Amino acid sequence: MRIYDIIKKKRDKEELTTEEINFIVEKYTNGEIPDYQMSALLMAIYFNKMNKRETLDLTKAMINSGDIVDLSGINGIKVDKHSTGGVGDTVTLIVGPMVAACGVPFVKMSGRGLGHTGGTLDKLESFRGFRVELDDEELINNANQTNICICSQTANIAPADKKLYALRDVTATVENLSLIASSIMSKKLAIGSNAIILDVKIGSGAFMKKLDDAIELAKAMVDIGQGYGRETIAVISNMDEPLGRAVGNALEVKEAIETLQGNGPEDLLQLSLFIGSKLLVLAKRVETEIEGRELLEQIIKSGAAYDKFKELVKYQEGDISQVENLNLLPKSEYIIQVKSTKSGYVKSLNAEEIGQCALLLGAGRENMESTIDYSSGIILVKKVDDKVEIDETLAEIHCNDMELGKEVEKRLQNIYVIGTRNEEPKKLIYGLVTKDGVELY
């Protein structure tokens, strides 16, 4: 078998066999196929695409290129949740404790945040001492003790994907459905959860800007998950504006805890209840989503969801005094009020640009070596469709560098588009994708 023949085959729009896909993934991961030949193959795939079977085979080959985390030692039906990335997205920190408090094991391995989208691990490291690196024995023990564990991926999960993604990034071959779907799912499926829910974001702050593209990606990932023998569904949710009101690690953690106590923003709570109820059905904890939602609402009201979050922090050696007293979380030296120069309604609030503002303040990473300022970020006092008066506060900037804070203030003045009321109400959830098809709301 020769890589030359495989490149030529895909260039000529032919279907690759399972054996050929296994060959290219193994040989490229081992360094036996050079970058220039793999670049040629990626470009051929980019233009000529892969079918459902090829995409599943590529995912399986990438999974088998590294470690597979065996979760069979954890009692019960294990569930996981993945977001394709957004701004202010703390759903994992809310859904995880809620479903765990219902007796369902929630096990998630996450990567770090990069660019304008925040990472779950970075948010959890706002707590002093919080350990994200756990070995398999600690992961299984924590999950059996508390039903919840959120930790970092081992270095050797889907190494083929790491190498292929780096090459795609510099050869303009990122935006291909099969390559995106297999990249995401290879990392998810290498961790042995029984059921997965995917939160596919759409809008200005998301990778997918159009609904049709988000649906196609969701379908591809659900097909992969089901083809691999895992119960998989996808939710398509709005990321035209940040989720919730907080953007920045400690600020988002504070908001997530308040949501678990029943005092969070409505959009964040509603998306968390929607996703959480579906996870309870997938785990066979309840029969219907209505029943699941009612149970989750009881779990919040009783304080059990909040208590479960405290357990998560305690078992991973974080400082629970910062959960019990939110004033002990990292705080910025300065808070700048961004005032409105006109009256009307907030028409739009570009999520990506707000994420870039938070990045400038130090809340995110330009690259993996960047240092994070856990205290910095933005509180969105006004969001889309909110009424605004002249000189009313639109947002609060939390920063430790006044010069950067003033720069972000100017940018936010332009990001907030104030005008007449939008004719169409904003949507939080666009639809659901399952093995049975697409349901739009």
From TrEMBL:
GO cellular component: cytosol
Keyword flag Phosphoprotein: no
Cofactor dependence: K(+)
Annotated Pyrimidine nucleoside phosphorylase C-terminal domain residues: 345-419
Membrane-crossing segments per the record: none
Enzyme Commission no: 2.4.2.2
Coiled coil start-end: none
Role: Catalyzes phosphorolysis of the pyrimidine nucleosides uridine, thymidine and 2'-deoxyuridine with the formation of the corresponding pyrimidine base and ribose-1-phosphate.
Subunit structure: Homodimer.
Protein name: Pyrimidine-nucleoside phosphorylase
UniProt organism field: Tepidimicrobium xylanilyticum
Lineage, highest ranks first: Bacteria, Bacillati, Bacillota, Tissierellia, Tissierellales
